[in-house]
Amino acid sequence: MTKETSPAHSAEHRVYQQELKRVLSLPDLLIYGMIFMVPISPMVVYGYVAQQSHGMVPFVYLVGIIAMLFTALSYREMSKKFPIAGSVYSYVQRGLNPHVGFIAGWMILADYLIIPAQLYAFSAIWIHGLVPGVPTWVWVILFAVAITLINVRGITIMNGANWILLVIELIALILFLIFAFRYVFLLHHGAAGWSMQPFYQPGKINAGFIASATSIAALSFLGFDGISTLSEEAKRPTRDVGNATVLALIVLGILFMLQTYVAALVHPNFQNLDPNLGFFQISRQAGGTFLYDFILIVTIIAAGIANTLVAQSAVSRILFAMGRDDLLPFSGFFSKVHSRTQTPLNSTLLVAVISVILALAVPAEDLIRFINFGALTSFMFLNATVLIYFYIRQRQYGHIVRYLVLPLIGFAIITYVWTGFDRPTFIFGLSWLVVGIIVGAIKSNFYKKTPAVLEGI
Question: Which 3 state secondary structure label does DSSP give 64?
């Protein structure tokens, strides 16, 4: 076995019998990350972000790239050192402390369990607007069944679906750009030419604005971290997982800036945009009813199918990793891998059921409010782990920027965004944390027992 695919030999690297199917290349991982982040996601929130940023939406996404890059670099460092499934759960578990790792994994579960439900809910609402005769609950169930069938069939099937769905999203983006360039540069409407207004407006960019932009943008980029859940299905995990994580963030950031900049040229007067339908209004302005309907339909596909597909896949693998370590109630159930498809079958099915229940029982606005607490909390754990593991424990003093400065900046940025959550979000997040602490205490004999595979770390 090559070094890339074999179990490591040190205590820190000690891993497991290979159960999942190693088939994913660097392009496959990159596509997965792009689908998770959704190349056309600014279309959904453009109206809201434009009003919050004085129309400087592409500047907000530029801030987002810079803000989240430090955490992406931390993911790259940990994925090289610990090429196993579980994402931040496994990284903090091995790099910092097994029990703290459980808490980090538990917190990101809050985010990953809500994402599919939120996507089902909004997609059902949007498609109900096009087909009002069908109740939204029917669409929620149809989306969940379709997504679960693809995920259960295996990582190869899901990977093929990702490529198709990405092409559909990029076609929509290219069509919008063509119509928008025609509208602005050939018909001389909108801004009637190039403008720096979407990137810079004198007197409006200050420390407070940068802070607000960071809060908005950081939440828009969540999803790049999902690539790390596929470490045991990547052909070259120590190299490709981290590189794909950083590349996905940069590539999607550029696409976000491009589409929002062109949208601002089409419609400079952002004040009169509907916060919920702003980009779709701009599409109708640039390309008529055809472009409006096409962009809306592709957005439904992107959220209800593409993004949900990878989100369900990610959370099922985190549950699989935690179940494999016997850290969850009914761990044997979560760690079950289908013998033929080599997928975490039970975890995938359970996530589908939870997603449908949440989508039908919890208002979509509340799902949005709660969705990011867990991810950002786990990002704080991750950045702290890079610093402690490499710089303090491994004494990598010669790499002060790589293992001290960069993770410190990442930790500071995420902490700042984290403190900006509203009171209901803190209540939800801290309640979830308390439950996790109790579960962890029960499964570890009050944190005295560690998983067998981690003994000696």
Answer: helix
Q: How far apart are CA 339 and CA 168, in angstroms?
A: 32
Q: What is the mean pLDDT of each run of 10 residues along the chain (457 residues)?
A: 41 58 89 88 85 89 90 93 84 89 88 83 80 88 88 78 88 96 96 92 80 72 82 90 94 95 95 86 95 90 81 84 81 82 84 90 76 86 95 92 95 86 86 92 80 60
Under CATH, what is the fold of the domain 26-449? Amino acid/polyamine transporter I (1.20.1740)
Structure tokens at 240: 């490709």
**Cβ atoms 425, 367 nearer than 8 A:** no
Could you tell me the two tokens for 373?
A: 């607490």
Residues 6+ positions from 386 with CB-CB distance below 8 Å: 74, 77, 78, 95, 403, 406, 407
Distance CA 406, CA 425 (A): 28
Distance of CA 363 to the CA centre of its chain: 21
Q: Which of 157, 158, 12 is nearest to 84 (CA)?
A: 12
Decide: 46 and 263 in contact? Cβ < 8 Å.
Answer: yes
Q: Give the predicted TM-score (pTM) of the model.
A: 0.83
